[in-house]
Every structure is written in C-alpha cells, then in structure tokens.
Amino acid sequence: MIEFAVETVGTALALWVTSLVYSDISFGKHPEVWGVVVVAVVVGLANALVKPVLKVLSFPLSVMTLGLSGLLVNGVVLLGVAYVAEKLKITFVIGHFPHTIDTTTIAAALIGAVVLSVVSLGIGLLPFMKTSR
Prior knowledge:
Layout: H1 2-21, E1 25-26, H2 33-49, H3 51-57, H4 59-64, H5 69-87, E2 93-94, H6 103-124
Antiparallel strand pairs: 1-2
Helix pairs in contact: 1-2, 1-6, 2-5, 5-6
C-alpha cells in the first residue's frame, strides 16, 4: 500500500512539473491538488491495465520501428487519461484535447509523453521516492 502511495505521489509530482515545463499540458489556471492526484491515479490505472494491451497490439509496429512506437502508445495513454479526466470533471488538457483532436494535439501528446517520461525518471531518482521492497 505504501508503494502505491509513493508511486501516486511521484506520478502526481511528475504530471504537475510536466504541466509547468510544457505549456501544451495543463491542469488549468488554478490546479487543485486533489485533481492532480486523481489524474495520477488514472495514469497509474491506465499504465497497469491499458498500456500492456496496447503494447501487445502494437508489437509488430514496434519491431518495424525499433521501439519508437512505444512513444505513440504513451501518447495515446495520455490522451485517454485526458478523456477520463474530462468525464470526472477535472481540468487536464493536452493540446486542444479533449475538445478537439488535431495535429497540435497529437504533437502535444507525443512531446508530452517524452517530457513526462524524463521528469518521471528524474523524480524516481530522488532518495525519498525509494521504497524498500
């Protein structure tokens, strides 16, 4: 249970920092802590339930692109999280999504996935984010 809480806090922190660093990912003008935490829980659930299925389905593409399709999977998961957040009445916008999907939104999802991965890696290296397993 402690590991889940630490992971959720780390994901929430990574999402918040990503929204500060990359303007196309936003929690709105005045983000609330609970909203960021709920989105972090949704990201955790999506990574645990949806992402493995998408990775299996995209395996042939992954072989052909030498793994670069993983970036596409991460972007799709981020867009899915934004969609779920909208249904939960939480402001979490990627590009213009969930209102419209266009090239800006797709680029924002792909770039946002890279930025979120880098920020998550950095946060994961912090000593207080380690749990004893």
